[in-house]
Structure formats: structure tokens, C-alpha cells
Specification:
- The complex is a heterodimer of chains A (about 325) and B (about 180).
- Chain A has about 325 residues and is mainly β.
- Chain A has 1 helix and 29 strands.
- By secondary structure, chain B is α+β, with helices and mostly antiparallel strands.
- Chain B has a single domain, classed as Alpha-D-Glucose-1,6-Bisphosphate, Chain A, domain 4.
- Classes of the chains: A mainly beta (about 325), B alpha+beta (about 180).
């Protein structure tokens, strides 16, 4: 029956293509996993409105996006799902026995990486059919994952091992492990190749140069930093307990400012024109920050418990 | 109960990673109530981190640091020698009548949660009196996959809801319901 499924999907793709063409512009879309509400809130960021709310069982948190797919991780259902980005329809679903948590997409190799919070490993999935191709060993309680912008590196925040594991995205071999602050959770590669990881136990960010596998700087931020994002040369960290967004200079690593946010800010990502978007877990909102004025320009309601743990904006 | 709590604490101390681990999905609750008294009067009762005698489940509260950040308190529940909860203050704003604290040590048999933080806020009520909001964020008591029922997400939510409801009910009894 594969042929018929493929032809159906091709038909759906065609419809989706027509829908995309019908939109006024290439709007940035935010896909916000809402863990407590078993839902995903979809935002058109150009218009500043929630355009859809998908029902998504299993308390979804992890998120990754590509041009033609949205990937979610629902730890209570132990499920990784590949969705049609326009309709939310589940195109493929894989059940992973363990604690699937963080997720990152490697478009170059067609790999989807998912961390197993309970079993110190990363599953390597085929990003189309979601079959498990391989497992990578990491430290205890791996959480956030990210792939470098050049597609050459995979990084894993091994929370209870206080370290980051680096893998060659091409060979999937371990390059090394770097000790960071206490309990690293969220992380993000800067465009220049450095990795920034938030340590929720020491309230700081470790900056790693993967070429030498060493910490090259540490930035003090607010209490419980859970996510890191960038706009040009500015870095941002969501501080979950402080209810603030730390702004720092990504070159000098000097702190610049703390912006008051809604409660329990967590997920963070950047629009194609450089705005920062954060998800506030307790208050059920996303907030948009103008990097020039460093002010919050919009606060929009989501379903219950937005996490948006990963890169969640699709340009 | 006390011995059991001690044994659990000792077991957790023996496994340093365990005390930090938590379940996959953070839970939250938010309860509010309204009372007849002015916010200043309510704040005078619940705004002191070192005195939680307004809560019917609290037998005694001892601590250090007053209402400063990082102040601590040890709550003894029920009666002398009862189970305990150790807490630390991490946010305090008297002008906004709000503070935030978290549990640093509790046995899951006493309160089936981990990584617990809590926020109490008093605001003026439209038409007079006060609104009291009590919010909590926490993970279930069982840090690993497939929790037993007494330590799952539902059990954690039910337990914290019970604590907040009992406290807010006591405040309504003390300050009266707002005039209708």
C-alpha cells in the first residue's frame, strides 16, 4: 500500500504548496509546543496572531522545524511525530522506549536527533520515515540538542553529567565531551560556530569553541537559564526563575541588560528579521522582543504550558 | 512517618544525581480566593516568610534571614515532631505584595513533588477587599519513567492543590468573604 500512501501525500503536498502560494508573503511561523495543554499553538509572526491550535497528546515539549515538516516530541506518549506544517496532520509517528526529550534536525544528512532523558543516549532517526538508524552514547540526562549552522556538528547538553557531548554530524562519531557549569539544559550554536549552553545550576552560560573542545568564556545570567538565542551579535538567555531575559554581547561576552518577561520563560528562537521570540510556560504566552530597542513589542496567548524546547520558528 | 522520611532522605543523599533528576513534564497550578480585608491587612499576615502559622497544616516555622533573598525556613507539619518541609525565599517584593520560594528538602511521602517553586501574591479586589493568588510549579515525586500512582503527575497536582486550598480557605475564614 506504500504507493497509494505516497500518492496521497504527494497530493497533500500539492495542496499545501498552493496554500503557501496563497499567503500574502513568506511569513515566519512559530510552532509552540504546549506541554500542559496537550497542544501546539501556531503563530503567524508577521501578523502577530495565533492561526491554529493543534491537538497533540502526550505533553509535547521538544520541537524542530524544516521547510516541509514540523517535528514534535511528546515524552508522556514517548512519541516523536512528523507533522504537515500547514495542517498539523501527523504524517509519521515513532514511539521511542525511554524518555524522549530534546530534538534537533540535521537537514544536510536527513537525520533527526532525539535525546533520551532516562538512558544517556541519543536516537538518530531518519527524518522522513522516523526509523531509528543508530544510537549515540552521551552523559546522564541528555536534554537540549542542536546542530551547527554549517551542519557539521551535533551538541548534546548532558544535564546530570555537567557536560556537553560533541559529535561529527557526518560520521556520527564522538569528537569529545566538555565539562561546563552545573546542569546544562538548553543550548544553541552561534552562526560563527561557537556553542552557548545555559547552566541552570550555576546561573550562567558556558561558551565553547568546538574546534578546541574547550570552554572559552562564561557569562553570568539570571536564575535558572533554560534557553539561549541570538540576534546578530546579541545573545539572549531565558531565566526561568527570575522571569527575565538576559541580553549579552556575544563577542565580548559582557552582560548588557535584563528584560522583565512573563513567568517561566523557556523556549527561545529568532525570526528571519532578527526578532527574538520566547515562550513563557507559566503565563501561557509568547513574547516578541525587538533586539534594537531591547523591549517587548508583543505578548500573545498560547495553549496551556508553552515550552517550545528547540528551534521553533520556520521562516 | 519521621523515620520513613529520614530513610528516604538518606537514600536520596546517597545518590546525588537522583535528587536533581525529575520527571518529563513540569506541572503547575494556580488558585485564587477573595477576602473582605484590605491588601495591607492580608499582607501583614501572609507577607512574613518566617511565620506561616496562618496555614492550618503548619505546626511551627523556624528560620533565618527574615524576608531577605535566600532566607530559609523549616516548617513542621501537624504537630511537634511531625514531618518537615525546608524552604528558601528567592524573590520578595513588599511593594508589589508578592514573594517566591522553593522547597529545598521534603520527603515525597510528605509532599509528592520535586523541583517545587511557589508564589504568593496579594492584589486589591475590584469593589474592595483583596485577591490572593497562590501559584506552584513542580515535577511529580517520581523522577523516572512510568511512576507508581501515588507519585505520578496527578498525585502531585492533587497534593499541592490540597495544601493551597486549605491555606486559602483559612484566610477566608480569618478575613471574611468579600461583601456581596
Amino acid at each position: 500500500m506504500l504507493w497509494s500512501r505516497n500518492s496521497v501525500r504527494r497530493g497533500l503536498d500539492l495542496v499545501a504548496g498552493l496554500l503557501i502560494a496563497a499567503l500574502p508573503a513568506h511569513a515566519d511561523m512559530a510552532y509552540v509546543t504546549c506541554q500542559n495543554g496537550d497542544a501546539l499553538s501556531v503563530f503567524d509572526l508577521d501578523q502577530g496572531v495565533e492561526v491554529a491550535r493543534w491537538s497533540l497528546p502526550g505533553q509535547p515539549a521538544g520541537i524542530a522545524v524544516s521547510d516541509d515538516a514540523v517535528f514534535t516530541v511528546a515524552p508522556m506518549a514517548k512519541a516523536v511525530r512528523r507533522h504537515d506544517p500547514m495542517t498539523g496532520e501527523v504524517l509519521t509517528e515513532a514511539v521511542l522506549d525511554g524518555g524522549p526529550t530534546g530534538i534537533a534536525l540535521d537537514i544536510t544528512h536527513g537525520h533527526l536527533f532525539v535525546s533520551d532523558w532516562y538512558n544517556a543516549r541519543i536516537w538518530v532517526l531518519d527524518s522522513t520515515d522516523l526509523t531509528v538508524l543508530q544510537e549515540l552514547s552521551v552523559g546522564s540526562a541528555p536534554a537540549g540538542l542542536d546542530v551547527s549552522e554549517d551542519g557539521r556538528l551535533l551538541a548534546s547538553a548532558d544535564r546530570d553529567a555537567n557536560q556537553v557531548s560533541f559529535f561529527d554530524a557526518d560520521s556520527l562519531s564522538l569528537l569529545g565531551r566538555v565539562t561546563v557549569g552545573e546542569r546544562p539544559y538548553g543550548l544553541r550554536f552561534h552562526k560563527d560556530g561557537r556553542l552557548f549552553v545555559g547552566n541552570v545550576g550555576t546561573n550562567d552560560i558556558s561558551v565553547i569553541n568546538p574546534a578546541v573542545l574547550q570552554v572559552v568564556g562564561t557569562i553570568p545570567v539570571g536564575e535558572r537559564p533554560y534557553g539561549v538565542g541570538f540576534s546578530g551579535n546579541l545573545g539572549f538567555a531565558t531565566n526561568q526563575y527570575a522571569n527575565t531575559l538576559s541580553v549579552f554581547d556575544a563577542t565580548t561576552l559582557e552582560p548588557i541588560k535584563e528584560i522583565d518577561t512573563n513567568e517561566y520563560p523557556e523556549g527561545i528562537d529568532t525570526t528571519s528579521d532578527g526578532k527574538i521570540v520566547i515562550a513563557n510556560w507559566f503565563d501561557n504566552t509568547i513574547q516578541i522582543i525587538d533586539p534594537t530597542t531591547q523591549d517587548i513589542t508583543a505578548t500573545l496567548e498560547t495553549a496551556d504550558g508553552p515550552r517550545a524546547f528547540g528551534r521553533f520558528i520556520r521562516p | 512517618m519521621k523515620r520513613r522520611s529520614f530513610l528516604v532522605a538518606a537514600a536520596l543523599a546517597a545518590l546525588p544525581g537522583m535528587a536533581l533528576a525529575h520527571g518529563p513534564s513540569r506541572q503547575k497550578i494556580s488558585l485564587t480566593t477573595e477576602v473582605a480585608a484590605a491588601p495591607e491587612e492580608v499582607w501583614a499576615t501572609i507577607g512574613n516568610f518566617q511565620d506561616m502559622s496562618w496555614h492550618p497544616a503548619v505546626h511551627s516555622s523556624t528560620g533565618e534571614g527574615g524576608n531577605n533573598i535566600d532566607a530559609t525556613r523549616l516548617l513542621v507539619l501537624g504537630q511537634e515532631g511531625g514531618p518537615t518541609i525546608a524552604e528558601v525565599l528567592y524573590k520578595y517584593d513588599a511593594a508589589k505584595m508578592t514573594y517566591s520560594y522553593r522547597i529545598t528538602d521534603v520527603a515525597v511521602e510528605v509532599l509528592p513533588v520535586t523541583n517545587y517553586s511557589s508564589h504568593l501574591t496579594v492584589t486589591p479586589r475590584d469593589g474592595g477587599g483583596s485577591k490572593i493568588e497562590w501559584k506552584g510549579a513542580f515535577y511529580r515525586g517520581y523522577p523516572n519513567n512510568d511512576p507508581p500512582p501515588e507519585l505520578n503527575d496527578e498525585a502531585a497536582i492533587a497534593a499541592v492543590t490540597g495544601v493551597y486550598q486549605a491555606g486559602l480557605d483559612a484566610l477566608v475564614a480569618k478575613f471574611g468573604a468579600p461583601g456581596s
